[in-house]
Amino acid sequence: MSHVVSPREAATPIRVALLGAGTVGSQTARLLVEQAQDLSARIGRPMQLVGVSVLDPDEVTVPWIDKSLLTTNSEELVTRADIVIELIGGIEPARTLLLKALNSGASVVTANKALLATHGPELYKAAAENGVDIYFEAAVGGAIPIVRPLRESLVGDRVNRVMGIVNGTTNYILDEMTLKGITFDEALKDAQAKGFAEADPTADIEGFDAAAKAAIIACLSFHTDVRMDDVRTEGISHVTASDIAAAKALNRVIKLLAVVTRTEKGITAGVYPAMIPLNHPLAAVHGSFNAVFVEAEAAGDLMFYGQGAGGAPTASAVVGDVVSEARHLSHGSLGPDIPLYANLPILEGDEDESSFVMRVLVLDAPGVLAKVSQTFANHGISIKAVTQLQLKDKDGYNELWITTHVVSEKSVHETAKDLDNLVPIQSVLSIMRIFED
Amino acid sequence: MSHVVSPREAATPIRVALLGAGTVGSQTARLLVEQAQDLSARIGRPMQLVGVSVLDPDEVTVPWIDKSLLTTNSEELVTRADIVIELIGGIEPARTLLLKALNSGASVVTANKALLATHGPELYKAAAENGVDIYFEAAVGGAIPIVRPLRESLVGDRVNRVMGIVNGTTNYILDEMTLKGITFDEALKDAQAKGFAEADPTADIEGFDAAAKAAIIACLSFHTDVRMDDVRTEGISHVTASDIAAAKALNRVIKLLAVVTRTEKGITAGVYPAMIPLNHPLAAVHGSFNAVFVEAEAAGDLMFYGQGAGGAPTASAVVGDVVSEARHLSHGSLGPDIPLYANLPILEGDEDESSFVMRVLVLDAPGVLAKVSQTFANHGISIKAVTQLQLKDKDGYNELWITTHVVSEKSVHETAKDLDNLVPIQSVLSIMRIFED
User: Which residues lie below 8 Å from residue B193, measured CB to CB, with a gap of 6+?
Assistant: First the structure.
């Protein structure tokens, strides 16, 4: 089984091309340069950065990127490298460039979650067909090793559910709302001022970023082709200070979760805010940190925690992938592919089952609770608990918190529609998943 | 780079031998049998269990181990397998059997922390020389993927410190003492009754089990030959209910930690109870769960959490390793070796620097604090905070809690020795590390 490397091969450097020199790209270049000696020792062969493609070479000012390496011709660069690192983001031209790289026999490292969530299986197939590697640890949870454990460590186990806090912006906002009792708008402004949210925060707060990660996690966990379009996606812009207060009263905290589940009928993938128990390990994930909680049949509960974004942490994950691929090249071997052989059925988002909490504003009148209960019963939903609050600021109205047993999201929404047409009901204020202790 | 597998090779099963069929061994056999189809799909070749060696074949009663596979001849079994799984534990005959397996060209999976902590580097070398794999995810933190992230994901980063709760028994005991205010003896009895502690709990409560894991983690983190003898080891049998109460008053909780640190002078490895802030992610690790907290230069803080022991979780980690090695065999490749090239100096245990809390019983008399402070000053230790408690149950005595700035353990112990000789001092009750917010 011994691998034979000729002295000439051992001395030939592995050629690395970098597409993009933004925050993550320039930090990746820094690690490759600063850790060059250590990395060579671990790989068994030197590595050489042979080119960095950017839109405008004049904008690259970091001292560790040699000016002579800069090019605007990505198409050409990907054909003269053994490993191509893609950090430009977006679907095109990233997709075309990576396919070209893979078809030219280069291995690929990417942090591009949007691309993987829409065209991942196409890229995984191209890598397998060309006998090269595609690694993407940085695409989910930044520096947190989560892709590798799912691809390799848990390969002999059966993953039943993965729940992740995979978006730092929304976790920061919800955390601030919880700790300081402020509104969503106030927390968003604060996050923008502190650099935790973009000027246009849509992709984060509407859950699209988390949905891309959910699709990638589902592929890895269930060996099934799951794309971003398959992920039922709900953001946090509608979460109110009253929702946060209700969660607190129920000994829970609201987190935006990406959840993929294997059920007997098939798999579900969703992103939504949910109330989780205070003693759940995910409840202790504060600020912009990320964490991914895995429920596996034999391994039991596992959690992976760390910084989900930022130049240096993401670059650390990228370089870890580069080293793995370089080692494979140095030894003439190959990492695990991403087999999507299971073809489990993907259920519609609203078939996903859970307990829910519905907050309803009702007239303070006798018989209201009976009418509300009957409406739930009409939809076959069994109620687990009801809390009635007398509202001081809204005389004549009460607020009901109705917690259901486990039911489909669909049936809860149909119930809410009927409730909205009932006379003593002012309005359904919110509907949210609530997780058990 | 494409790997070529002939049809005959593809059909030849990979031969797996299992040494030991205790709790973990029988669960490992179960996963290999129950998941056979999935595993073959992921490996690209069938796997076959060719033998299970045990001391007494009559004691193996689980239905999924075919009686015809049982043997008492481990020496012979290891020579007719492609992958040898060692789950017998202890140093010998495990060491001799694994060396024989490696030298016969078999790859090895082991969960044997005691063996790796004393002879790991010898085994890693034998694996590299024979061009085969040695994997041992289950040796640290059971099912938690921690070995693989350190070996592979963080390979492009620089690990500065790893702190782990790596022993479930002691975490359960300290957690019970904290939650219920009971004594160490009461908590130990409870743990034994519930199966969380052995009849002879020495290896756990005196920190030896954690020290073995610390040595393994240090090798992986710092690429330096660190053995169990290099680990300064202190258990929890001396931790009192008063220590727990003091920690609580200082907004901290006591955990038994395995800590390996890279400093400018070299590396330190230690196991000791320490007071950690309540908002530290490790503080939320309850019961018999384990967690490993990694501080890396680029990746920042990472934490890995899960069940550190138990048949099924440990077996999950073992099978993950088996699949990785089987994939390598199927593709004619090899996993990363464990290069111990850095040769960092290993510092003496008591050179390890930290803040400490000393609890001292003193006469309630004027001038005591001045004398105590002077004694610390004599040893160059600067005091950060002092709390004085009037003891209701011990009239005429006070208790002092003295928190130091960061100093060496050695200097704190020398100070304690001098304090014990001072007239107004009754006794030094305890000395413990305290970690910053």
Answer: none
